[in-house]
Amino acid sequence: MRILKPVISNLLLVSVAACASAALNPADSVARLEQQQKANPTAAGVNRSLGIAYYEVKRYPDARRALESAAKIDPKDGTTSLYLGLTDEELGDLPAAKAAYSSYIQFGRTSRVRSQLQSRLAALTRKELVADAKATVAQERAIAGQAGDARTIAVLPLRFSGADTTLKPLERGLADLLTTDLARSSQLTLVERTRMQAIIDEISLQQSGATDAGTNVRVGKLIKAGRVVQGSILQVDPNNVNVTAGVVNVSTSQVQGTAQSSNLLEQIFSLEKDLALKLFTELGVTLTPAERNAIEQRPTRSLAAFIAYSNGLKAGDEGRYDDASRFFNDAVRIDPNFGAAQTKSAEAKAIAAGAQVSAATVESSLKGSTEGGVVNAAKGGNTASNTSSGLGSSAQTAAADLNPSASGSATGGASSSGGSGGASQPGQVDPASAGTGSDNPTGTAKVTIVITRPRTP
Q1: Closest CA to 383 of 60, 35, 103, 15
Q2: CB 274 within 8 A of CB 244
């Protein structure tokens, strides 16, 4: 006896199937998937689902093993990469988490998640600097005995003295300009400013940006620099400044040479260029004409824009990334051609946004997507396809659950799981037909299942 069924969409079917899966508690889901994995250990989907299930119950080492197995079988599966990254974060393996998130950005299908992970990568890079600084300071005794390369140079924040405290952020701004200009020479390797700042912060070497000769040498040893550049900014009067910089040999703690330059505050960029050229002489570097021309380039000609930029550096060093972004934006507003400020603004925005990304926000962004369906299936102890065809398969399975007729009217022909040889069972009469006797056994009916291709959010 055939039964008329309403037209249903695959989304309704998958929703019902998901509800059925949700009835399993996390431990039962893990147990079910472990059995599937034992039966089919080389199936990428099974290992992926098992890894997600392990992640949900906080069995992170087990989750990593299962997800790594899935990634080896199918290295282009975005959902695997996503949960591998989340797992690596929980385990404190930041480099591995960054690699996994980068893989998702390349292969993942959900645009909102890709955007979140782009920001998360920026935040993790900064977090990694802090972790590396902690590890470096912890190994200080071993590192202290290793001589740094004489061509590796670190420019530390300068010390400001003067009545106008609004100029104090120039401690970082001028050091940043000197780092950029000294890096123009192919004969030198400059230590990244943010890496050096992380070391300074970790050992609490400075208060409000100030350092001294003894602590500067210690920083130089920790970052394996052969020489450090340290110095001071003196505001002589409201309109004039004097900048002095010295080159210190890290291994001997001796000052090898000094450079000094004075000028009007409004001419601070000319002052910095003059100082940089003198430092090259003290460092024993002969510039090529091309390098000298590059050094003569000015990032901005606006003192106000540069002070805003310097404030942004200070805010970023202190972890105030929203404030840093605003300062950098101010610098760009004053000078729209200030390229370094534009770059720093984007970085600060990404770090601030990335700090807000969590497993909960990522999973929220997955809702309604194909990848979200894969995750939901894993939480329910099932394995789902990560392709659009997987939804059709899930719909067919759900339809079979809703329509117990083994004649297959609604699902295209299903067989009894318990019967021998897969023989079809007689159709079942629905209650309305049984009550009215109006069902026509010779009649036919058409049941339509609408399958729509899911869109990537």
Answers
A1: 35
A2: no
For position 384, what pLDDT does the model report? 82
Ranges of the chain with pLDDT below 70: 1-23, 204-213, 385-457
Q: Which helix (H) or strand (E) holds 9?
A: strand 8-9
pTM score: 0.75
State percent of the chain over pLDDT 70.
77
Q: Are 383 and 44 in contact (CB under 8 A)?
A: no
Alpha-carbon Rg for the chain, nearest whole angstrom, is 32
* Cα 251 from Cα 257, distance rounded (Å): 15
Per the CB < 8 A criterion, the answer to whether 232 and 260 are in contact is no
Nearest to 343 by CA among 152, 166, 122: 122
Alpha helices in 108-169 (DSSP H): 111-138, 140-144
Helix (H) or strand (E) holding 83: helix 78-90
CA 162, 167, 171, 172: dihedral to nearest 10 degrees? 170
User: What residues pair up with 159 in beta bridges, in sequence order?
Assistant: 232
| Distance (Å, whole) CA 408 – CA 412 | 5
* pLDDT tens digits, one per residue of 229-253: 999 999 999 999 999 999 999 999 9
| Domains with residue ranges and CATH for the chain | 10-136+358-379 (1.25.40.10), 146-298 (3.40.50.10070), 388-450 (no CATH)
Kindly report, residue by residue over 264-308, the tens digit of the pLDDT.
999 999 999 999 999 999 999 999 999 999 999 999 999 999 999
